[in-house]
Amino acid sequence: MTADHVFTALASPARRELLRLLLDEGAQPAGRLAERFDMSRPSVSEHLRVLKDAGLVAESRKGRERHYRLEAAPLMEIRDWLSPYERFWTGRLARLRDLLDDMEDEIEDDMEADDA
Fold it and tell me: What is the pLDDT along the chain (116 residues), one digit of tens a residue?
């Protein structure tokens, strides 16, 4: 499993929704997950396979059912990859906020001068 596999798995809205369901509701059988989608069960199973291959879900068998649970560890690698970009944008937005605050102060000063 590589970051490319994880990014590929996350590219699909259906797969992101599967991950959200597993996060919010915990482990569940494939059939219950499939009921939540307007697509065939084999299509949902294919999405689950992609998530499993990327290491984002784990599969276990309980009788005839396949149960899936979230495995979030691969997301840590993605978070680490995104971290420098988050710092970049946080810094840019802070500078923009400072610039807007300075502009607001200048406008207020100009308005006070006009009133005087």
Answer: 678 889 999 999 999 999 999 999 999 999 999 999 999 999 999 999 999 999 999 999 989 999 999 998 999 888 888 888 888 888 889 899 988 988 888 888 778 777 76
Burial profile 91-100: b = 16 or more Cβ within 10 angstroms, e = fewer = eeeeeeeeee
Tell me if 5 sits within 8 A of 51, measured CB to CB: no
Q: Distance between CA 66 and CA 60 in Å, rounded?
A: 6
CB 2 within 8 A of CB 49: no
Q: What would the 3-class secondary structure string for 12-46 be?
A: CHHHHHHHHHHHHHCCEEHHHHHHCCCCCHHHHHH
CA angle in degrees (0–180, nearest 5) for 94-95-96: 90
Widest CA span of the chain, in angstroms? 83
pTM of the complete model:
0.74
